Amino acid sequence: MELLMNPLILQVTLVWYLVVGCAALLIGAGVAYLIIITVQKNRSTSIIREAEAEAEIIKQQKILQAKEKFLQLKEEHEKIINEKNSKINQRENAIKQHEFSISQKLEEYQRKKNEVEVIKENLNVQLNLVEKKKEELERVHRMQVEQLETISGLSAEEAKAQLTESLKEEARAEAILFVNEIIDEAKMAANKEAKNIVVKTIQRVATETAIENSVTVFHIDSDEMKGRIIGREGRNIRALEAATGVEVIVDDTPEAIILSGFDPVRREIARLSLHQLVTDGRIHPARIEEIVAKTTRQIEEEIVEVGKRTAIDLGIHGLHPELTRLIGKMKYRSSYGQNLLQHSREVANLSAIMASELGLNAKLARRAGLLHDIGKVPDDEPEIPHALFGMKLAEKYKEKPEICNAIGSHHDEIEMTTLLAPIVQVCDAISGARPGARREIVESYIKRLKELEAVALSYPGVLKTYAIQAGRELRVIVGSEQVTDKEAETLSYEIAKRIQDEMTYPGQIKITVIRETRAINYAK
Predict the structure, then answer these.
(1) What is the DSSP letter of 484?
(2) Which residues, in sequence order, are CB contacts of 472 under 8 Å at separation 6+?
(3) What gap in Å lies between CA 33 and CA 246, rounded to an integer?
């Protein structure tokens, strides 16, 4: 107890126990470490063995896969080699067959070559014989020619020239017959459908006709009114003529006054003004000027209204106001006795119908047909044909190029570039050529008929000519002693060709050449 109470001993004891405890702990830790290392070493060994086993298994699998792949590649390679060998064998067989065929052809060629040599030798022999025969024939021919020249008194060149001339005449006559047959066949084939379309078009359109004149007759109730119209010393009639530009003729015609002037608009203004003056009763120069000015404005308004109404009736829209005014002005213009507005309306309707029959634009055709004669009613007289002037007006007022071309080419002044142009030209001819539509001036009509007869009379052998059916047919009487049947065919063709080239005429002219033989005897 005392020992324990001694501090030194106590300390030493504590140190001892501490050292022993630490040693025990270290020993325990070392033992534990050794145990852990041993356990870890055993596990590592086990894992390595397992990995080695798995690696061995994978190695065996890969070796098997490699063997399978090798076998597969080997089979494919052998297959490819077999295919190539098969193709090579086929190619070799084909080459052998080709060589065999070539050898056969060579043998055939050699055989034919030998045959050709034999034929060639035979031909040479025959050619020699032919040459001898040819020389003999030429000798005989020369002898015969000399005999013929002696008998006929003509040389070979002269006989050849006569034969050539006769053959030319015969060929010319046969050619004309052949040409006529071709023309007839072409007309029958080409015009069959065209006639159908034209006839249908004409049948579906009708219009009124008018008589051309340059005077207007104004009827009055009594002849007493003539003196008032003339006025003191003729002042009223002079004022009316100065204001309207129309000549007023007061003659012995009962109850009628004649208004003469080339401008239909002026004549209409004069007629209406005179009607208002007679109705009102106040006739003096100042009143005449007032009435004429008022009537002129009314006519201008009516012209515009007629143009608008015409465009609406035909279903034509978007016309320039100036073109509309010119269309209305057509009402007071006539051509060969045919009212220009009625003619233009008819051509417009005909063009639309024909265009629809042919599958073309009917609206454009109707517009071109209405405007085709717009150049005939200008405010100023142009120095160029009305077709070209109308085309310039249409271009000025922004009409489409195909319409402008149809206007300008309907009398062949310019080349036609669209299908619309020939339609307008044909419809213009239809409207003007129908019976009763137009009336020619007598002098020009007679002059044209005389020119027709003169053309036919200028040919040798023609005895008489007659223009009949209003100039639609020309009958030519020829002498039977001077003209043969074949020459009559030729003459008919030549006269028709010359008339076609040199003359201007409406429609077509039929040329009939008549050759007859008469035997005359007298019974006494």
Answers:
(1) -
(2) 507, 508, 509, 510
(3) 151
Beta carbons within 8 Å of 370's beta carbon, 6+ residues apart: 310, 311, 314, 316, 327, 344, 345, 347, 348
Structure tokens at 12: 């030493």
What is residue 260's three-state secondary structure?
strand
What pLDDT does residue 381 have?
Answer: 65
Rounded to 5 degrees, φ, ψ at 413 are: -75, -30
- CA distances in angstroms from 286 to 32, 241, 281, 283, listed in the order given: 155, 13, 13, 8
Average pLDDT of span 177-191: 69
- Distance (Å, rounded) from C-alpha 208 to C-alpha 194? 25
> CA distances (Å), 100 to each of 86, 90, 94, 139, in order?
21, 15, 10, 58
Within 8 A by CB and 6+ apart from 210, the residues are 334, 337, 338, 339, 342
Residue 477's SS3 state is strand
pLDDT of amino acid 163 = 67
Torsion angle, alpha carbons of 404, 409, 415, 421, to 10: 70
Count, residues in the chain: 524
Cβ pair 321, 286 in contact under 8 A = no
- Tens of pLDDT, residue by residue over 461-515, are 898 888 877 677 888 989 888 888 888 888 888 898 888 888 877 667 888 898 8
280/287 Cα distance (integer angstroms): 10
Q: Which of 419, 438, 313 is nearest to 370 (CA)?
A: 313
Other CB atoms within 10 Å distance of the CB of residue 422: 14
Q: What pLDDT is stored for residue 6 in this prediction?
A: 64
DSSP assigned state of 437: S
Helical packing angle, 340-357 and 321-329, nearest 10°: 120
Pairing mode of beta strands 334-335, 338-339: antiparallel
Per DSSP bridges, beta strands 473-478 and 510-515 are parallel
Answer yes or no: is pLDDT of 78 > 60: yes
Q: Give the angle subtended at the CA of 463 by the CAs of 460 and 464, to the nearest 5°.
A: 125
DSSP run (H or E) holding 257: strand 256-260
**How far is residue 201's CA from residue 365's CA, in Å, rounded to a whole number?**
13
338 Ramachandran zone, left/alpha/beta (phi>0; psi -120 to 50): beta
Distance between CA 399 and CA 317 in Å, rounded?
12
Strands 510-515 and 247-249: unpaired
Q: Would you call 80 helix, strand, or coil by DSSP?
A: helix
Q: Which token pair is 161?
A: 């020239």
CA separation for the pair 81, 389 (Å, rounded): 91
Q: Using DSSP, how many helices (H) and how many strands (E) does the chain show?
A: 15, 8
Nearest CA-CA partner of 230 in 245, 247, 211, 250: 250
